[in-house]
Each structure stands twice: as structure tokens, then as C-alpha cells.
Specification:
globular, 25 helices, alpha+beta
Length: about 625
């Protein structure tokens, strides 16, 4: 994993020291080497975390003629296969690195090259002869890439927003609509940033710059329920093969590789399959977090079954310190409370390894989120029996149990949500948004009377076409919005803050395309979560995991927002002269009645406002530019 920076200089006069400053600001992403180069019309910077070909993979990298240059962040898991393919086409290689394979792929296929790559990546290529730049990002959005246009006509890129800001070439302006979307989702939607003049290259997208003209396009789209000729038995066999293949591909490295082991179905599958491809014990990491749900016993069962070199740590969280640290690590407001345990897990693992495999993506690809259960009852062709309805209510009750509400309130909330959401939101996609987000909540009072329409920009960007039907509509939102906007941002920033590369085998391109292409009725067979993964990989799990449901990694925020150290932060961010109140005049009122029992929804809303307030404290300058 690495950090990349680039200045495409339209005016033809590079600024001394700027690219060096941008690269150094990203040194946490790649502390092994920091290099930059000034070319005609382009400056390139790179910070390297050496994983493959430690001696030969230095960047920025050029071809033999020094016409083409590349800076690249990520890993190309099929680089060996591509290397053989390119060699058959006549290309010669000087190194064993996937960076050189990427560069040759661009020379061979040009703008089509991202379609050939299976991996997590963001890159910028500069053609010194044509004065043309191309940038691209991986299909699922694992690796970030941000860009902005400057007043002088330059185009600048960086792996993180902080790399752009340190250039001094762009003065950020807060996007009120993005803030409103954040308050509903808990994260900024992945098609935009919190700043109106700083942009993200979206997942599965590419862009070019040539002669001052920019062009963007998507090179890949998820396709759902297209494999109608495949029966369940054949699908199970193929899933097992593809998961095993993905794990084997992602174990390739010239440095120590370990695995996060939560004791859940996804990470346990990864660890089990890793053990088949190494003669040494797999190094695994598990962390318990005091008042968080403790999954250590399940992780120990898997570690014992596969004789892993297991490391576990029980930690207490100083919430006030961690919340303020997260406001630094994440360049945008981020309200997912699981970023704290993820950050601590990465800090723990990086003491031993440079690469860790994780189970991220398994819930989106195989359908593992508990919020799917209420959708299955009324999805077209879904289960309609009274038994299914009772099971549905029990599952929802289980989800609500984590809030700490009295039992009667849990039961009433589950029943009410089950019936009301179907009546109010006949479109399954809208129903999913209503259940899994806070976008439906009225925020006018928070904004002081007139709220930007955050929900509408989410609909405009992520509402699926009519051809996407049934449970595919929920899956599509989670694949295209929740996964790249929340989960992958969380992991990338937390891991790279500690110079740790995290890989996600469940996001392997071959696996994703096959599983999402199966009919959704097969992916959610019998109204069950993850039936395909259970049938394909259940034999790998120790008996302690049998029948285990989804257990999230987030904190009990209904209790956290009432802890004394958090209450102190709340008082600070809602003070009359605070940056938060300057942006949201009604913020203080949102914390009235803090002593009463809070639903998960109310607790999450307050947590998101608090995280926004702490983030704004560190970025008060951009408030001056709010219209």
C-alpha cells in the first residue's frame, strides 16, 4: 500500500517543493521510501509501503524510454497472470513488481487497462510525449483517489484529502448538502466529498486529462441475477473454489502476512483457507474492547482449530482521546463507531505484520446484514409464511437488543418497524434506506429552518434502474454506496494510519461477479442470511460457530454518548460559539434529554453530530466559505 500525489500543470510552470510537501504529508501510507520527480507538464510523488519486489518496485516508475510514468497505490492480485499474458505479446520486464505490470498494461491496452486488473488500486499515469494523464480506481473502491482543479488551471491528485490541502493550491469550501447526507448516512456519500471544490474519483471509474480537457467514465458496473442457468449445487461448488482462489491470490507478498480474526463467519473462512496455502501457522489477531461485544471466545475456537499463531489483546478505550484522534485520521466527518476498534486492531497487528487479510465485503456480497431480514418478508418472491414473519420479528428484536432498551420497547419497536416500513415505502430500495439509515429523519431544526436536500442527492446518485429487482435493490445500495462510503473508508484510513496493508478476499473481482450474478433468490435462499457461504464454507468452521448470527464490530453508542468523558466533549462542541453551532444552529437542541434511554437511531444521530463537531474544530477556516 502506498500514497500517491500528482500535479498536472496546465500552465507549464511547476511549483518548487509542492509535490514533495504533498508526498511527505502521506508518509503514514508508505514510510519505507518517499520519492518525487518533476517532469515536463507533470510532478509525481510517491510514498512506498514495500510489499512486493522490495528492491525493484520503487516509484515513480518509468518504462524503458521514460515516456510513460506511473504512481500506484494498491496491489494487483493477478499481476503474475497478466505478466505472462503481456510477455506473450512481446513485452519485457525488468522487475518482479506489480507496478511494472500495471505500466505495461497501460502501454498495451491504454484506457482499457483497468478492466484487466484484479485488485485494489488507484493510479496516475503520465505520458510525456502526448502530455496526457490517466487516473483510475478499483471496482469496489478499496483504494482512494481525490482530485481538485486549482485557480491556475492545474489538476492535482492525492490518496487522501490532506495531501491535496497541504499543497496550498486549493482553498476548501464545505458542501452543506454533503454534510446533510452525512447526517443521514453516518458517512459522506462515495460520489462526493465534504468539500464542494474537492472531488473523489468514484469506484470503478477512470479519468483523463489532455490539453486542458477532462473526461470521466465508469469502466465497470455490478450486474445482478444474470446466471439463471446455474443450479444451487453447482453454485455452491463454484463459490468454494472462488473464495479459496481469492484467498490464495491475496496471500502473495514478500513480507509477513497475517489475518484479522473476529470469530465471525467471514474472517473465520479466510483464516481457514489461508491455513491450506502455507506450511507455517497463520498469524491471527483478535481484540476485545471492554464494553464492546466480546468475540474473543469465537476467535479462540477458530485459532485453536487451525493452530494459528494467535495474538489477542483486551483493551479499554479512552473514548475522548480516540474520538479526537479519529477527527485527525479521517479527512471527512465519519460517524461509524467501529472506526475506533478497527483503528486499535490495526495498531495491534502492525507490530507483527505488514499485511493482514480481513473479511470485509462478505456481508455485501453474500447478504449478511441483519437489516436484510425485514426486506425479505415483503420482497417480490420472498417468503410469505407466518413462520417467516415470526422469524423476521425475532431477528429484528435481536438487532434492537444491542441498544440496551427495555425488553418491551425492543419488541414494540421491532413490530412497528416491520409493519410501518412496508406501508410507507413500497419501493424496496426506499424501504432499505429507511431502515438502514437516518436519511428519512427531518433535519430542518438542526439547520435552523432550511435544510439542504441530502436525501435527494443520494437518490440521484444511487437509485437503481427498474431492471434491478427484489433484494438486488438493497444489495446494490450496499455495494455502491455503503461499502465504498463507509466500510472501505474506515478500513483504509485506520490501516494506513499505521502503515498496514489490509486485503479483502471477498472483494476479488471473479468472486464478486459470480456471486452477484446469481439470482437473488439463491443468494437469500429460504429467507436466510449468507446461505451460499454457509453451504460452501461451513465445513471449515468449528462447531462453536454453528448457527452464529451477525455480530457487528461497532460500539454501544447508546451508552457511549452518556459516558462522562463523552458528555464533556458534547458540551464543548455545542457551546454557543462553537464551529458546530455556526454550521448547525440547532445542534444543541439535539442533545436535550440526554439522560433518558436512547434508541439506536437517536444515539447514532447524536454520535454523528458529535463526530462532526470534533471534525469541525480542527477545520474552522473552511467555515468562512460557507454560502
Amino acid at each position: 500500500m502506498c500514497g500517491i500525489a500528482a500535479i498536472i500543470n496546465n500552465a507549464g510552470a511547476a511549483r518548487d517543493g509542492v509535490i514533495d510537501r504533498m508526498a511527505r504529508r502521506l508518509d503514514h501510507r508508505g514510510p519505507d521510501a518517499i520519492r518525487s520527480i518533476r517532469l515536463s507538464g507533470c510532478d509525481l510523488g510517491h510514498t512506498r509501503l514495500s510489499i512486493i519486489d522490495l528492491a525493484g518496485g520503487s516509484q515513480p516508475m518509468a518504462d524503458d524510454t521514460e515516456r510513460f510514468w506511473v504512481v500506484f497505490n494498491g496491489e494487483i492480485y493477478n499481476y503474475r497472470e497478466l505478466c505472462r499474458q503481456l510477455q506473450a505479446l512481446g513485452w519485457k520486464f525488468r522487475t518482479q513488481s506489480d507496478t511494472e505490470v500495471l505500466l505495461r498494461a497501460y502501454q498495451q491496452w491504454g484506457e482499457e487497462c483497468p478492466k484487466y486488473l484484479n485488485g485494489q488500486f488507484a493510479f496516475v499515469v503520465w505520458d510525456t510525449a502526448e502530455h496526457k494523464a490517466m487516473a483510475a480506481r478499483d471496482r469496489m473502491g478499496e483504494k482512494p483517489l481525490y482530485w481538485a482543479s486549482t485557480a491556475a488551471g492545474d489538476l492535482i491528485f492525492a490518496s487522501e484529502i490532506k495531501g491535496l490541502l497541504v499543497s496550498g493550491l486549493v482553498e476548501p469550501r464545505i458542501d452543506r448538502t454533503a454534510i446533510d447526507s452525512y447526517l443521514g448516512l453516518g458517512y459522506v456519500p462515495p460520489d462526493r466529498t465534504v468539500y464542494e471544490n474537492i472531488h473523489t474519483l468514484q469506484p470503478a471509474s477512470a479519468m483523463t486529462w489532455e490539453k486542458g480537457q477532462m473526461r470521466q467514465w465508469r469502466y465497470w458496473e455490478p450486474r445482478y441475477s444474470t446466471h439463471h442457468s446455474i443450479g444451487a449445487p453447482d453454485a455452491v461448488v463454484e463459490v468454494r473454489r472462488l473464495v479459496a482462489q481469492a484467498v490464495k491470490r491475496q496471500m502473495v507478498a514478500d513480507v509477513p502476512v497475517g489475518a484479522f480474526l473476529s470469530g465471525g463467519l467471514d474472517s473465520s473462512t479466510v483464516v481457514a483457507l489461508m491455513s491450506e496455502h502455507t506450511s507455517r501457522p497463520v498469524t491471527t489477531f483478535s481484540v476485545g474492547f471492554g464494553d464492546l461485544v466480546n468475540e474473543l471466545p469465537y476467535a479462540r475456537a477458530v485459532a485453536h482449530a487451525y493452530r494459528t499463531n494467535h495474538h489477542e489483546l483486551q483493551m479499554d478505550i479512552a473514548l475522548d482521546e480516540m474520538l479526537q484522534q479519529m477527527a485527525e485520521v479521517y479527512d471527512e466527518p465519519f460517524g461509524d463507531s467501529s472506526n475506533i476498534p478497527t483503528y486499535l486492531m490495526c495498531s495491534f497487528a502492525t507490530r507483527t505484520v505488514k499485511v493482514a487479510l480481513a473479511g470485509d465485503g462478505g456481508d455485501e456480497v453474500f447478504g449478511g446484514y441483519t437489516w436484510y431480514v425485514h426486506l425479505l418478508r415483503n420482497a417480490p418472491d420472498g417468503p410469505e409464511s407466518a413462520l417467516a414473519l415470526r422469524w423476521l420479528k425475532a431477528q429484528m428484536w435481536r438487532v434492537l437488543a444491542k441498544t440496551g432498551l427495555p425488553v418491551t420497547r425492543q419488541r414494540d419497536a421491532a413490530y412497528r418497524a416491520c409493519s410501518e416500513s412496508v406501508i410507507r415505502y413500497p419501493d424496496l430500495w426506499e424501504r432499505h434506506l429507511a431502515w438502514a439509515t437516518l436519511l428519512r429523519r427531518d433535519r430542518k431544526a438542526l439547520w435552523g429552518g432550511h435544510a439542504p436536500d441530502g436525501p435527494q442527492i443520494v437518490r440521484d446518485s444511487f437509485h437503481p434502474s427498474a431492471e434491478v429487482r427484489g433484494m438486488d435493490r438493497a444489495t446494490d445500495f450496499d455495494v455502491r454506496c455503503y461499502l465504498p462510503g463507509d466500510i472501505l473508508v474506515k478500513v483504509d484510513r485506520a490501516a494506513m494510519a499505521h502503515s498496514l496493508e489490509v486485503r479483502a478476499p471477498f472483494l476479488d473481482v471473479d468472486l464478486v461477479e459470480f456471486v452477484l450474478g446469481l439470482p437473488w433468490q439463491l443468494r437469500f435462499k429460504g429467507g436466510e442470511l449468507k446461505p451460499l457461504l454457509k453451504e460452501a464454507c461451513g465445513s471449515l468452521w468449528p462447531r462453536e460457530l454453528a448457527g452464529r448470527g451477525k455480530q457487528g464490530f461497532g460500539g454501544p453508542i447508546s451508552h457511549w454518548v452518556r459516558r462522562p468523558e463523552v458528555a464533556h466533549l458534547i458540551e464543548r462542541v455545542i457551546a454557543p460559539d462553537s464551529p458546530l453551532v455556526a454550521l448547525l444552529p440547532g445542534a444543541a437542541a439535539a442533545f436535550d434529554d440526554a439522560g433518558v434511554d436512547l434508541s439506536w437511531e437517536e444515539a447514532q444521530f447524536r454520535w454523528s453530530i458529535l463526530c462532526l463537531g470534533l471534525w469541525l474544530e480542527k477545520r474552522t477556516d473552511c467555515l468562512r466559505k460557507i454560502p
